[in-house]
């Protein structure tokens, strides 16, 4: 009996090793959903990123300050501060799969949820960030969605695994899609 239990445990462990691991599971949010659910949407440039220990010193968080070029939804000052889990401090790192990543100097469009009076979180984690990429001659300006990496996306209706479905758009197309989604939301509220 004991041999059978041990054999079952080894077999179960062997089966689990063969399964793909996804540390983060989240519901897929399309561009309309991001636009309508975010408290604030801004276009801007990352001015600084700084990782630090949380106040209880149990986890690492990263602060991202973005200088706002244009506010597309909500009210934002000249800068917004995003605080999110993960980062690296004194050679110790914590990774949260599915989080948006930011680099100083990077131009972005981000969908944000209030997290306290002065701080924000990215709506839908990495799904709520588009990187703005300009061609060398500045004729082409694309908004490229952030990869969700190893995170497992689930269809919000079926709860089955799905792909991102987000695609690169021109910056003007992205802004127009956001405005259209917000207009639809306003029309629905009036009805």
Q: What does this 3D model show about the protein?
A:
With 191 residues, the protein is an alpha+beta fold. It has one domain (21-190). The protein has helices spanning 2-17, 31-37, 171-190; strands at residues 25-27, 40-53, 60-73, 79-85, 87-89, 92-94, 107-114, 119-122, 129-134, 141-145, 152-154, 169-170. The longest helix has 20 residues, at 171-190. The protein starts with a helix and ends with a helix. The model is unreliable at 1-20 (pLDDT under 50).
What value does the Rg take, in angstroms? 20 Å
> How far apart lie the N and C ends?
67 Å
SS element count, helices: 3
Please tally the β strands and state the result. Answer: 12
Please state how the strands of the largest beta sheet are arranged side by side: 2-3-4-8-7
What sort of overall outline do the alpha carbons produce when their principal axes are compared?
A: globular
Estimated share of beta-strand residues: 35-45%
**Total discrete domains:** 1
Give the rounded overall mean pLDDT: 87
Order of helices and strands: HEHEEEEEEEEEEEH
> Can you tell me the residue ranges where pLDDT is under 50 for at least 5 consecutive residues?
1-20
Roughly what percent helix?
10-25%
Assembly state (oligomeric):
single chain
Largest sheet: 5 strands, mixed, barrel
List keywords for this structure.
191 residues; alpha+beta; five-stranded mixed barrel; two-stranded parallel sheet; 12 strands; 38% strand; disordered N terminus
Topology at a glance:
Blueprint lengths: L1 H16 L7 E3 L3 H7 L2 E14 L6 E14 L5 E7 L1 E3 L2 E3 L12 E8 L4 E4 L6 E6 L6 E5 L6 E3 L14 E2 H20 L1
Parallel strand pairs: 1-11, 4-8
Antiparallel strand pairs: 2-3, 2-7, 3-4, 5-6, 7-8, 7-9, 9-10, 10-12
